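Appendix C: a fully annotated inverse folding record. The material below is reproduced so that readers can follow the format used throughout the book. The structure is listed first as tokens, followed by the designed sequence.
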């Protein structure tokens, strides 16, 4: 075995806790020092009082300003919804020019097999085939 020194809990120095009265005494002493230096004598005694004061000292928007901000946000959201709905309608209009094509059974099976093997929709294959045919014939 190795001869390593072992540490125990008693080997680690730990600072003693201050009592609550000591914290208040320190904050009062700080207030007295700041008053002696000519600073604001109303220094909060604890962090909780400081947090509460900072919350109460922040200027909040007036009710009219809040109402205006809420209505402005609602109008912006409604405009965004309208734009999205119009965009979806435009896309639907562009894609809804159906061509009904009767296919024989063998051609349909070949189309389904090609779509399955290439992980494409049959409509994509048919559109590409029609585009190719029209380009080849000058249309």
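Designed amino acids, in order:
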């Amino acid at each position: 075995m190795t001869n390593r020194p072992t540490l125990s809990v008693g080997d680690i120095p730990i600072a003693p806790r201050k009592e609550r009265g000591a914290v208040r005494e320190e904050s009062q002493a700080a207030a007295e020092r700041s008053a002696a230096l000519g600073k604001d004598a109303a220094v909060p005694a604890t962090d909780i009082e400081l947090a509460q004061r900072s919350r109460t000292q922040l200027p909040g928007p007036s009710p009219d300003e809040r109402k205006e901000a809420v209505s402005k946000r609602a109008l912006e959201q409604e405009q965004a919804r309208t734009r999205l709905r119009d965009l979806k309608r435009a896309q639907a209009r562009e894609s809804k020019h159906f061509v009904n094509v009767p296919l024989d059974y063998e051609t349909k099976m070949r189309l389904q097999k090609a779509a399955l093997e290439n992980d494409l929709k049959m409509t994509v294959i048919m559109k590409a085939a029609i585009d190719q045919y029209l380009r080849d014939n000058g249309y």
